[in-house]
Design brief:
Chain lengths: 338, 504
């Protein structure tokens, strides 16, 4: 009995306790870590990854997977730059264009998977390749910045509008002037929205039902295909939001940015399985997972760990989290009723 | 007298409190087909699983040709000469490989098998196996492209490549057509002539008549009948299989009010007779028949999962032809499907969410779920239908089969419907839960038409006002559930009367 309770407690709160332990350790070991500025810095560092991770969480919930999120984000980055710099569109039009692009990519992913029965990993892998290639074609593989030479010999005269740059760079006053960056606010709002959507609406509940037993969900009258497509569309739109924020922060259409987005965000979503012993995709866990990685990296950086150890650390966290989820939860399952 | 190939004495097996096999005695003889009959839950499949090494016996003795036999696992059983062909064919073959590879697959794992696969040699060997079994298909065809019967033959042929002493066939004809089944029987005849002892599990009368040398019946984990005197007493066997449970529920059959669901000349396939059935308000109609009689197809048509070849349906006089489960639910037709594990249970959800799944719209405002209301309705249903659980927040997987089934049926009783379809509601359900479900369905029957699809006659007698018998896709009998002529019912289910008509 006692052993069971300890195990249950460990599964439920182990990850959060570990995270609290890390925060305390870093605060003591690295001067400056335990400050509000450092907290905002961590949030800022995980905001874009976190938004993508929340999108991929929706596809994980319906037992799917979206490998194209990273390339959707970079496509949004390039598209917004192209729209403003080359086509000289307004910030608003550029943002809308990117969001529509994300939704359309999600729609195509969904249709490939649902109607053409392409396995999710393969469909989105194909889409990833396609987008990586596509975003290079209009600029012949070059990054986009004001004053660049265009293929037809003219010079691009458009600029990133200040309104657009503000999305990535403006800081909102909160206790301290110019404190919380806009991307952090966007991240927190999206996390809240997806948490409510997946956890507390009937649509979210049906999506979990589809992920758990698709056939049973269909036999109670759930339009399974529509929900699956919707999940990929949410994922696509989230990824393009991430791309827009990245573009606004960088201020140029940098072809080489965003290489790590896919792996980082998938890791965050998978780490989220371990939070509160959920053992399934969930928005709260995903947000915590993204934060966990952010805290760890920030702490290690402040303790002078070299940057090239970062991926190793992320990988190690992911493996530990997966063991938490699958091994411990299965032990609990075998132990019978609570 | 033929020798005993496999001798079973006092075999017992329990799962926790549940004594599934209570002292089985059985002899399988060389060159003889022993047919094993038993209702759902009689313990047939447990017996098979002990024989083929999937479960270990608790007590009792097993002997193979006089040598003690206690298989550790499936491979051990096969190496000792006990080969089993399971009900689901695709467990036995690898669809992506060709016929030759499938027939010689086990050679690849044998000690001494070379590193490289030699196609030509493999095909030659496969051809030899195929010839000995009378298989004629091209060795290079992908098995996935073959018909079901051919796939089944290949599974059996590969099993035979091991030269077994005992061959166990678990409902092998359940997905075969009549002509396909014929080919299987010819194969069985050939194996019998080669001296193999065959245990054949089925309750399809036509199969049994065709191949049985001996019939044994199981009920509640014990042997309940043994027939080997020619001519075999088939009806006696069916009675022994169903047993005393028949008369335990008294039903006063209701006539029903005005017609609710009317099936008009529904044709299941091109060459079956049209089906006309009317189900009335407040009436519970059981549609029974063997596997392959068309029950499942008919249930699917009513719920919009399949389309009939011809004919139409009406609900309350209005035309009804759903194209999807969703449309059926909207028209007030609810169905609890068979095989709850694959078709109904959401394993990740607790009882409350499983119960309310079809009607989440009712339990939400502006899409936001009202969890408290979900729980209170679930609690009421748990109370009414008698679900044994700690609370509505238990994971569905912690419940026993019977209680899971109560949740699956309870979910469709939350809202009032016009037509309630229950497909095999007593599958994998213990007798107590079965009674609970049956009496609850009858209690709540007013205000809707209820159709129950069951393959066991006793289940039909327990729940229905009226019993309709399907055979080979056509209605062959109809009985008001009062003083039923059991002999006739059994004959209709097994297709005896149809054959008598054809002969006369």
């Amino acid at each position: 009995m006692g052993k069971d309770r300890i195990l249950n407690f460990a599964i439920r709160y182990g990850f959060l306790i570990l995270m609290a332990g890390l925060v305390i350790y870093f605060s003591l070991a690295a001067p400056g870590f335990g400050s509000a500025i450092s907290a905002v810095f961590i949030l800022q560092s995980v905001a874009i990854t976190g938004i993508l991770a929340l999108g991929v969480t929706c596809t994980l919930v319906v037992d799917g997977f979206d490998l194209s999120i990273g390339s959707v984000a970079t496509t949004a980055l390039m598209l917004s730059a192209y729209a403003m710099v080359v086509l000289e569109m307004s910030a608003f039009s550029a943002v809308m264009l990117c969001l529509i692009m994300g939704a359309v990519v999600g729609l195509i992913n969904g249709i490939l998977i649902v109607k053409f029965r392409v396995p999710d990993l393969l469909a989105t892998l194909g889409m990833m390749f396609l987008l990586i290639g596509l975003q290079r074609i209009p600029t012949q593989g070059n990054s986009i910045a004001t004053g660049m030479n265009l293929p037809d010999g003219s010079v691009a005269e458009g600029t990133f509008s200040p309104a657009f740059l503000a999305i990535g760079r403006h800081r909102v006053d909160l206790f301290i002037d110019d404190f919380v960056p806009v991307p952090v606010i966007v991240f927190l709002l999206i996390a809240l929205a997806i948490w409510i959507f997946l956890g507390f609406t009937r649509h979210g509940r049906l999506m979990y039902a589809i992920g758990s037993n698709e056939r049973a969900a269909s036999l109670v009258g759930t339009p399974v295909n529509r929900y699956k497509i919707a999940a990929y569309m949410i994922s696509g739109v989230m990824a393009s939001v991430g791309g827009i924020l990245l573009a606004a922060r960088l201020g140029r259409g940098d072809i080489a940015s965003g290489n790590n987005l896919l792996l980082d965000s998938v890791a965050a979503a998978l780490i989220g399985y371990a939070v509160l012993g959920a053992a399934r995709p969930n928005a709260f866990g995903t947000a915590i997972g993204a934060l966990f990685v952010g805290i760890l990296l920030q702490g290690l950086t402040m303790m002078n760990a070299p940057y090239y150890t970062q991926d190793f650390v992320k990988g190690a966290v992911l493996v530990v989290a997966l063991v938490f989820t699958f091994y411990l939860s299965s032990r609990r399952g075998a132990g019978g009723k609570k | 007298m033929t020798k005993s190939a496999c001798q079973i004495r006092g075999l017992e097996k329990s799962f926790a409190q549940n004594r599934v096999l209570r002292g089985i005695d059985l002899d399988l003889r060389f060159g003889e087909v022993t047919v094993l009959m038993g209702a759902n839950g009689a313990g047939k499949s447990t017996l098979v699983k002990v024989l083929c090494g999937y479960h270990r016996k608790d007590s009792g003795t097993l002997e193979l040709d006089g040598v003690p036999y206690d298989p550790k696992d499936a491979a051990d059983a096969i190496s000792k000469g006990v080969v089993t062909v399971h009900q689901t064919i695709d467990d036995g073959v690898i669809p992506d490989l060709d016929v030759a590879a499938n027939l010689t697959l086990n050679r690849l794992t044998e000690p001494g098998a070379g590193f490289f696969v030699r196609d030509r040699k493999m095909r030659a060997e496969a051809q030899k196996v195929a010839d000995s079994m009378g298989l004629t298909m091209d060795m290079r065809t992908r098995v996935g492209d073959l018909e079901v019967a051919d796939r089944q033959m290949i599974a059996i042929a590969r099993a035979m490549a091991r030269v077994p002493q005992v061959l166990i066939l678990d409902e092998p004809t359940s997905s075969l057509s009549a002509t396909e089944a014929d080919r299987l029987f010819n194969l069985i005849d050939r194996l019998r002539d080669q001296g193999v002892a065959i245990l054949y599990i089925s309750h399809r009368m036509s199969d049994i008549r065709r191949i049985a040398d001996k019939i044994v019946c199981m009920r509640d984990g014990a042997m309940s009948g043994f027939f080997d005197a020619a001519p075999l007493d088939y009806e006696g066997a069916v009675r022994a299989m169903l047993g005393r449970s028949m008369a335990e529920v008294e039903i006063d059959p209701a006539k029903g009010g005005k017609p609710v669901l009317e099936l008009r000349s529904i044709k299941l396939t091109e060459d079956t007779a049209p089906i006309d059935v009317t189900v009335r308000d407040g009436e519970v109609v059981a549609i029974t028949g063997l596997l392959g009689s068309g029950k499942t197809r008919l249930a699917e048509i009513i719920f919009g999962l399949a389309q009939p070849v011809g004919g139409g349906m009406q609900i309350d006089g209005k035309a009804y032809m759903p194209g999807h489960a969703r449309e059926a639910v909207r028209a007030g037709v609810f169905m609890s499907p068979k095989d709850r594990g694959t078709n109904a249970v959401i394993p990740d959800f607790d009882i409350a969410n499983n119960m309310t799944l079809p009607f989440l719209g009712v339990f939400s405002r502006m899409s936001m779920l009202k969890g408290r209301q979900q729980k209170s309705v679930t609690d009421r249903m748990i109370e009414q239908i008698g679900i044994v659980c700690q609370s509505n927040a238990d994971s569905i997987l912690t419940l026993s089969g019977g209680n899971q089934q109560k949740v699956m049926i309870g979910r469709w009783l939350i809202e009032q419907c016009r037509v309630l379809v229950l497909d095999e509601p007593f599958q994998g359900v213990d007798i107590g839960a079965r009674r609970d479900i049956g009496s609850h369905i009858r209690r709540t029957a007013a205000g809707r038409a209820t159709i129950v699809f069951v393959s066991e006659i006793d289940e039909a007698i327990e729940i229905a006002d009226r019993i309709i018998v399907l055979n080979e896709g056509a209605v062959v009998g109809e009985h008001i559930n009062k003083n039923i002529d059991l002999g006739m019912l059994v004959a209709q289910v097994s297709g005896l009367s149809a054959q008598a008509r054809a002969a006369g």
